[in-house]
Design goal:
four-stranded mixed β-sheet; elongated; Translation Initiation Factor IF3; alpha+beta; about 110 residues
């Protein structure tokens, strides 16, 4: 599956637009992560636990988006983006979205 943030892919043409596609994940930080973040916030620096959680969440959101596109019969996703937000005080939402298309090599 080709996944790009651009509208066009050199050497390919879009022959069918399947529609919007997304992958969503909501993760909780957990009490241990909140305590470590609070302590790290006092001295400054990167909070590695949150960084790892967000990286994993983005990868999972992309995997879910790709699975959704496969089910729609697409072989590529164009204009891929991420969005994120918080739900409550301890949950993070990550969504990967784009347009599922069928590409043909020129």
């Amino acid at each position: 599956m080709i996944v790009v943030t651009t509208e066009h892919i050199e050497g390919y043409k879009v022959v069918d637009v399947k529609g919007p596609v997304f992958g969503l994940i909501v993760r909780s930080r957990g009490l241990g992560g909140d305590i470590m973040a609070g302590l790290k916030g006092l001295v400054g620096g990167e909070i590695m636990q949150y960084t790892a959680m967000l990286e994993d969440s983005r990868k999972e959101a992309i995997d879910r988006m790709i699975k959704n596109a496969h089910q729609m019969g697409a072989n590529a996703i164009i204009m891929m983006r991420f969005d994120s937000g918080e739900m409550g005080r301890s949950m993070s939402e990550i969504v990967a979205y784009g347009t599922a298309v069928v590409l043909e090599k020129l």
